[in-house]
């Protein structure tokens, strides 16, 4: 167990001014024990901390934990952190909690503790859930000495820790705490290398900043253009807004006068409307009485016709009272119900007897069939016994089985079983002999197949060797030709190398010259920027003065606009008056006076009176149209009602009449005749069936013919029975068919009788239809005449109203003319006021606007010239940079040509050596193929011999097996036949078929006796049923007569009641008709008064609406976006314009400065790193094949966005020649180069932190490279030992490597990581270096 005994205690090492790590504690991470009491820790030393342990012990977990604490990132390929925590399944828990704590010192020497806690939960569905429990940071308050702990969000702490440590996150990820798998990233592919260096330099962030500045500049220019145009538009809008406000006040005053007049007229109209409503109620009551009279008269006529038809339809007119008829009808109903109940009971009994007869017939048929079946079974039994005896006799003679199974008449079952077993044993013995024979032949065939397979394998192996050798020779032929051609093309490699070196020297001279030119242009740019600023300040001062002069000119322009508007109104007013006079003369036919407004008013009053008179005439016509329409509607409704009743009631019997194509009375007569006919046919069939049954039973009992008393033998009796039985079989079906036909006919008769009253009503309605149609035609002619009169009056009224509206429009035009005159007077007043205001506000100008603008223009030209020169110089610098980039690309291309030429020289030597090896291999392959071909014929002879032996063995075995198998199959078939026959015989004996025959015969005799008795009962019930049906038919006819008499008397009473109601209505109408004309006259007068007031009100309402529309339109204009904030918009737009102009200048200066600074910073850092890399390489690398290595940064300029992109590569230099190190260096050189680049990055970018962790640096290295790496590291440690911020952490499994490092650096302790006794958890122990070695 490990604990922070000195954490944040204030003790330990002295105050440090650099960031350093002090100790780490781990629990529950990967293979470390999740138990908090068993946590493991390491205290980091200076200058080196060594961590030793075997593979798989958990060493790399330390690097992963350090990186996780500082950056918050979990290792790659861990399922978003799930595999980073100890697996719950390994520890047998449902959840595991993990914790990492790291103690470090900041730049100021303050001690801090960062802690991260995680949890991994095993879910029920087999998945695992990873979550972060807590992230905290602990510090010690320097004043109070108390420990302060704070919790953060993961994203916040991940950004905070690198800032506290003074190191960027890319340096922590790619330099300091680098995983074993990513150690050699400086020699990775180009895209990965570029991304890592861009992150380290943070170049992407600044490049995006430059692009964003250019984008803002472009947008700002658009804003300046828009603001300039907007200022000019807003000036014009301010003048229009002031004019609209004055018009609003005038319109409000006019609206107040109109509203007062409208309220007065509304009060008078309300009084007249109340009187009109009272009068209208009286007229509506009279019209309703007239309408009711017409309806009642039509209904009464229909009732009289129905009464007449019902009287004609009566066959007997009863003289009894209504009560006596109703009592007689009730008695008939009770008697009819009793008869129907008796009929139903009789029918049920008859149907029951018929069902029992059918069941008995079916039983007799079944018993006769069963009797015949039993006799057939007895015959089959005798045949099976004979067949079985023959089979047993044959088998006994062939196989010598002495079992006496067969007797004289039947078979002994016990002996049969014994015979069956002995015969089965004989068959099984034959099967065993066949299996022994098959086994013998199978073994012989297996031996032959084994020898054949061995011979074939020998031949296949030889052929495979031959094929492989030939395939290899075919592969070697093109390689030999290719190597020979390649060697021939490499003859001029030395000359190419010399030419490439000359090009490199030329490119370097051109680059030096371009850099000098760019420096001069940059100095001139700074001077021009100073001049540009001075002149721009002077221009701003002059623009303020010009603004004052511009306001004076704007006031003068405003006065000129007012005068022009006054002249325009003067010219507009005269033509308007002339048009008004001409139009009024056209409408009224009278000339106008001096006051055109009064003329229009008098003409309007005259037209309104004419409209009122026409309206009165139209109202009278409306009343006539309404009365004629009501009369027409009553008759139309009556006609529709009659037609609807005819259609509805005809639909009730339409299906029957359409089916039989005859009237309903004829259908009833024919149906009743058919009913009587079917009833007689049913009775006749029942009697015929009983007669046949009696004849049959009597013939069986007496043994003679029942008709002629002639004796009959059994054959004649049987023939007669069969004949009678055949006829009786068809009788039930014929009876059922006739009974169904009778039921259907009875149903039809009943339905037609019920529909006959409806049929008579339809006939009565069809007679009323033509009369109502004639009345409706007369009413329709009257309605058309009143409608035509109404249309003529309407046309006249519309013409008068059109003339009235024309005069009203002239009144509105007159108001506009008066408004124009008043506007002209107001404009003349405002002109005098503006002239006085200009003299008072501005006085006489001191300096003319033209002189100010001229000076501004001169200064602006100077500024433009400076800007043009700046742009020219910037283009020159840009062109110089582009040329430099082009030359750099050419220089790099030349350097690559040198590198390629060197590689080609090495390749030439390798090709020659490879060609000699392949040629020797080709010759050896040819000799091998010749040896294999000589062995193949002997293998083929051996295969043929073994194949013939195998065929002979198979043919002999198959023949013997076939003979034995056929014999066994014959015996098995015989045995199966014997068993089947024996089982059938045994079953027949057990069934006792002879006894069953006697039982069936007795049952047949009993059923035939019962059938004869039932036939006699059926005949008696049929006679009784016919008697009931005849009585019920007679009662129904009497009942219909009684009902018809009652309906006729009811209809007579309805007619008398209708005549009394009609007389009463006529009397009421006669009483009220005396004051009818006076009411209509009063109503017409009131309507004329209301129409006149409505016309007057409409005039004022029109004026009010026109003024209101004008007011709303003006207010809407003022409240719209166009005028609501016009002054604020004008002022704010001026401010935006000035701000945008100043922003454009500042951004242009900042863009230039940032671009130059970024390029300079990048060049300085690359130069600084290359100096460090060269120094470290020379001091650590002991080989003589590489002078030094360096980091190259190639610049690419984007053609579209004009931004710079940097591409990076590590090169090795030998004798002035540079080659890409990737793919050309050894494993030791790659590891050392990566380490040197990481140390250079650490020194260049994190001067405040010298921590560096190496994870398994000896991976894939041989002994010599490990020794070289150990020596190089001791040199680096010795060189950096004096730096207070240098900490090297080495993690390895190589004890020899640790021994060399520890002895050279004087290490005292080493941390050893290993698994515990069970091999489950990792443990860390601190050991003395001297004891380990």
Main features:
single chain, 1333 residues, alpha+beta, six-stranded antiparallel beta sheet, five-stranded mixed beta sheet, 20 helices, 14 strands, 76% helix, 8% strand, disordered N terminus
User: Uncertain segments of ≥5 residues (pLDDT<50)?
Assistant: 3-16
What shape does the CA trace take? Answer: flat
Rg estimate, integer Å: 65 Å
User: Roughly what fraction of the amino acids lie in strands?
Assistant: 5-15%
How confident is the prediction overall: mean pLDDT? 76
- For the secondary structure, the number of strands is 14
Helix content: over 70%
How many helices does DSSP assign?
Answer: 20
Largest sheet strand order: 2-1-4-5-6-7
Structural class determined from secondary elements: alpha+beta
- Largest sheet report: 6 strands, antiparallel
First and last CA, distance: 25 Å
Structure description:
- The chain has 1333 residues and is an alpha+beta fold.
- The protein has 20 helices and 14 strands.
- The chain has a six-stranded antiparallel β-sheet with strand order 2-1-4-5-6-7.
- α6 packs across α16 (1126-1180) and α7 (322-399) packs antiparallel against α14 (993-1072).
- The two termini are 25 Å apart.
């Amino acid at each position: 167990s490990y604990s922070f005994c000195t954490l944040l205690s204030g003790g330990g090492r002295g105050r440090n001014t650099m960031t350093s790590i002090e100790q780490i504690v781990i629990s529950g991470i990967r293979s470390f024990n999740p138990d908090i009491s068993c946590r493991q820790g390491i205290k980091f030393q200076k200058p080196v901390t060594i961590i030793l342990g075997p593979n798989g012990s958990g060493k790399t977990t330390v690097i992963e934990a350090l990186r996780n604490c500082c950056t918050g990132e979990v290792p790659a390929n861990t399922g978003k952190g799930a595999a980073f925590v100890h697996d719950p399944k390994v520890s047998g828990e449902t959840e595991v909690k993990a914790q990492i704590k790291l103690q470090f010192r900041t730049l100021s020497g303050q001690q801090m503790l960062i802690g991260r806690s995680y949890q991994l939960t095993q879910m029920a569905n087999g998945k695992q859930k990873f979550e972060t429990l807590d992230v905290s940071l602990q510090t010690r308050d320097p004043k109070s000495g108390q420990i302060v702990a704070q919790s953060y969000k993961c994203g916040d702490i991940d950004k905070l820790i690198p800032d506290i440590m003074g190191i960027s996150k890319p340096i922590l990820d790619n330099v300091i705490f680098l995983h074993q798998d990513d150690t050699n990233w400086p020699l990775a592919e180009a895209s990965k290398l570029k991304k890592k260096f861009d992150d380290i330099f943070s170049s992407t962030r600044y490049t995006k900043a430059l692009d964003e500045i250019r984008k803002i500049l472009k947008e700002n220019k658009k804003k300046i253009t828009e603001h300039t145009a907007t200022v000019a538009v807003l000036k014009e809008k301010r003048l229009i807004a002031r004019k609209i406000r004055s018009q609003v006040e005038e319109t409000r005053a006019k609206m107040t006068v109109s509203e007062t007049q409208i309220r007065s007229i509304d009060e008078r109209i309300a009084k007249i409307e109340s009187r009109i409503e009272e009068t209208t109620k009286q007229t509506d009551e009279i019209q309703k009485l007239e309408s009711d009279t017409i309806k009642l008269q039509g209904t009464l006529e229909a009732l009289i016709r129905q009464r007449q038809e019902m009287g004609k339809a009566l066959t007997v007119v009863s003289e009894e009272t209504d009560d006596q008829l109703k009592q007689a009808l009730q008695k008939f109903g009770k008697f009819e119900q009793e008869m129907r109940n008796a009929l139903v009971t009789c029918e049920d009994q008859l149907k029951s007897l018929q069902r029992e007869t059918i069941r008995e017939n079916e039983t007799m048929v079944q018993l006769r069939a069963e009797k015949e079946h039993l006799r057939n079974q007895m015959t089959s039994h005798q045949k099976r016994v004979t067949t079985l005896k023959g089979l047993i006799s044959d088998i006994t003679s062939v196989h010598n089985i002495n079992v006496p199974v067969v007797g004289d008449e039947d078979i002994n079952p016990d002996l049969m079983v014994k015979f069956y077993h002995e015969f089965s044993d004989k068959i099984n013995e034959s099967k065993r002999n066949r299996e022994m024979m098959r086994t013998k032949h199978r073994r012989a065939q297996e031996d032959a197949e084994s020898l054949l397979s061995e011979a074939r394998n020998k031949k296949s192996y030889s052929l495979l060797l031959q094929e492989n050798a030939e395939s290899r020779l075919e592969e070697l032929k093109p390689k030999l030709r290719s190597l020979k051609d390649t060697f021939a093309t490499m003859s001029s490699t030395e000359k190419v190398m010399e030419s490439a070196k000359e090009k490199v020297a030329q490119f370097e001279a051109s680059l030096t010259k371009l850099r000098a030119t760019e420096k001069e242009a940059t100095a001139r740019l700074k001077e021009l920027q100073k001049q540009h600023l001075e002149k721009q300040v002077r221009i701003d001062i002059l623009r303020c003065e010009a603004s004052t002069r511009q306001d004076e000119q704007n006031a003068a322009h405003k006065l000129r606009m007012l005068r022009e508007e006054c002249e325009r109104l003067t010219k507009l007013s005269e033509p308007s008056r002339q048009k008004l006079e001409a139009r009024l003369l056209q409408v009224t036919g009278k000339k106008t006076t001096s006051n055109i407004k009064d003329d229009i008013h008098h003409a309007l009053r005259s037209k309104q009176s004419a409209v009122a008179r026409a309206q009165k005439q139209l109202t009278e016509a409306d009343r006539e149209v309404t009365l004629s329409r009501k009369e027409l509607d009553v008759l139309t409704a009556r006609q529709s009602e009659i037609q609807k009743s005819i259609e509805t009631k005809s639909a009730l019997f339409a299906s029957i009449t359409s089916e039989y194509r005859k009237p309903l009375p004829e259908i009833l007569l024919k149906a009743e005749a058919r009913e009587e006919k079917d009833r007689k046919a049913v009775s006749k069939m029942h009697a015929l069936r009983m007669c046949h049954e009696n004849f049959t039973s009597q013939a069986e009992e007496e043994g003679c013919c029942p008709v002629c008393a002639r004796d009959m033998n059994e054959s004649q009796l049987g023939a007669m029975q069969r004949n009678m039985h055949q006829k009786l079989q068809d009788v039930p079906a014929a009876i059922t068919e006739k009974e169904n036909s009778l039921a259907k006919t009875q149903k039809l008769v009943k339905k037609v009788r019920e529909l006959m009253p409806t049929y008579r009503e339809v006939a009565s309605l069809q007679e009323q239809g033509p009369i109502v149609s004639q009345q409706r035609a007369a009413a329709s002619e009257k309605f058309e005449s009143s409608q035509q009169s109404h249309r003529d009056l309407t046309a006249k009224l519309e013409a008068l109203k059109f003339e009235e509206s024309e005069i009203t429009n002239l009144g509105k035009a007159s108001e506009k003319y008066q408004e124009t005159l008043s506007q002209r007077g107001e404009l003349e007043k405002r002109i005098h006021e503006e002239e006085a205001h200009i003299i008072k506000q501005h006085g006489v100008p001191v300096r003319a606007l033209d002189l100010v603008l001229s000076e501004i223009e001169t200064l602006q030209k100077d500024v433009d010239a400076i800007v043009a020169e700046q742009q020219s110089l910037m283009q020159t610098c840009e062109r110089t940079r582009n040329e430099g980039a082009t030359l750099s690309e050419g220089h790099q291309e030349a350097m690559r040509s040198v590198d390629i030429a060197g590689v080609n020289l090495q390749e030439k030597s390798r090709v020659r050596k490879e060609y000699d090896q392949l040629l020797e291999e080709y010759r050896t392959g040819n000799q091998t193929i010749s040896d294999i071909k000589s062995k193949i014929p002997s293998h083929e002879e051996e295969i043929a011999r073994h194949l013939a032996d195998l065929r002979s063995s198979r043919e002999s075995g198959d023949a013997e097996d076939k003979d034995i198998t056929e014999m066994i199959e014959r015996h098995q078939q015989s045995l199966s036949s014997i068993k089947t026959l024996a089982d059938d015989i045994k079953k027949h004996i057990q069934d006792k078929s002879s006894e069953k025959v006697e039982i069936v015969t007795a049952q047949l005799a009993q059923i035939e006796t019962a059938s004869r008795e039932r036939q006699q009962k059926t005949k008696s019930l049929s006679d009784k049923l016919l008697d009931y049906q005849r009585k019920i038919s007679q009662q129904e006819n009497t009942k219909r007569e009684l009902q018809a008499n009652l309906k006729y008397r009811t209809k007579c009473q309805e007619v008398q009641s209708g005549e009394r109601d009609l007389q009463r209505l006529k009397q009421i109408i006669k009483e009220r008709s005396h004051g009818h004309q006076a009411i209509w006259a009063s109503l017409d007068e009131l309507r004329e008064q209301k129409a006149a007031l409505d016309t007057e009100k409409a005039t004022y309402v029109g004026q009010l609406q026109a003024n209101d529309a004008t007011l709303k339109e003006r207010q809407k204009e003022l409240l719209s976006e166009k005028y609501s904030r016009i002054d604020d918009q004008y002022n704010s737009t001026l401010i935006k314009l000035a701000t945008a102009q100043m922003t454009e200048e500042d951004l242009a200066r900042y863009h230039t400065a940032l671009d130059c600074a970024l390029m300079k910073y990048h060049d300085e850092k690359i130069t600084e790193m290359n100096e460090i890399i060269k120094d470290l390489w020379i001091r650590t690398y002991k080989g003589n094949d590489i002078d030094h290595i360096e980091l190259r940064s190639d610049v690419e300029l984007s053609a579209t966005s004009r931004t710079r992109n940097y591409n990076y590569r590590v090169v090795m230099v030998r004798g002035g020649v540079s080659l890409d190190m990737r793919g050309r260096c050894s494993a030791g050189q790659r590891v050392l180069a990566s380490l040197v680049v990481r140390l250079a990055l650490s020194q260049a970018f994190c001067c405040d932190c010298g921590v560096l962790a190496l994870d398994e640096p000896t991976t894939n290295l041989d002994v010599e490279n490990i020794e070289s790496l150990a020596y190089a590291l001791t040199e680096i440690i010795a060189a950096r030992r004096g730096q207070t911020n240098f900490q090297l952490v080495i993690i390895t499994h190589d004890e020899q490597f640790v021994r060399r490092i520890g002895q050279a650096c004087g290490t005292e302790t080493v941390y050893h990581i290993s698994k515990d006794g069970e091999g489950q958890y990792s443990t860390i122990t601190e050991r003395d270096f001297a004891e380990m070695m």
